[in-house]
Amino acid sequence: MSLYRTNSISFFSLMFTALVFFAIPEQSRAESAKDAGFENKQAAAKVYEEKKMYKAAIAEYDLLIAAKEKELKKLNGGKMTWSKDELKIARDLAKLLYKRGSCYRRMGAWDEAMHDFARCHSFGYKGRRLDYFLGEGYAHFGKYKDALRHLRLVLASPDKDNLDRDQLANVYSLCATAYDGIGDQKNKLDCLDNAIAVAEKPARFLKERAFYFQNNKQWQKAVDDFNKCETLQGLTISSYYGRGRCYMELAKYDQAALDFGSCIELEPERGGYYAARAAAYEKSGKKELALADRRKVAEIGEDFALPLRPNKNSAKGRLPSNSN
Asked: How do residues 7-33 score in pLDDT, each as one tens digit?
């Protein structure tokens, strides 16, 4: 009897489950499966991002975005006003565009990144990070006024204090680049000063300011910033060469020759560095050393394409700060 009751209960439970299942409309079951698939793809994209597999993450976001766009188009049908449900889908779509744009940004694919960030912004998605990315992207494409518009929003945002010191310094540095692009040197210098003041690691911003001073013929101020940068992390070729040029303007020819020598140590096949050092030797009366460098120039040829401004690609090496 006990076995019969157990079997009976099991039988009726199965019948009840089947009735409930078939009572649910087929469309609802399909939507549940669809939602589960959507969540799985979101989870997969997140994992790919964490593993820095950005192409794989983008492939998942492509499918997710296409699904949301189709859902929004089907629901809205081109109407000018959106319902509450449509606004929710639009917000979800904006978040996906932001995430895909972030992946493109990390890959250096700025055209695709800015397309996604701009669409994200058009859907009403706002935030400090989006404004930073838009500012960064517009600066990359030389649209400096647009860059400043978004970067100022970052600096004016209530949660600006949530940025760590180096992140805030990067915002000021981007502003400096944008101000330089529109010819506003005063605000450029103010932004570089702010970047140096807040950064935990200010060497990069000291280098930028050093080149600013050099370009504005403030030779000693440029040398002072190059020296601070050297103390913190050592100098790149562009910085050695820049400081050497400043020393030449200050008539400190021995120091200039040392800096040009550091350039030669890092890139011994660049004739322009030998020519620069030869000029420094001649000014300091070291004719034999100048002649030897001139002979080297004649041997390998003079290259005038020397790093006059800070450039990530111009420095193939660096010497430690205590190098002679």
From this structure: 444 544 444 444 444 444 544 444 444
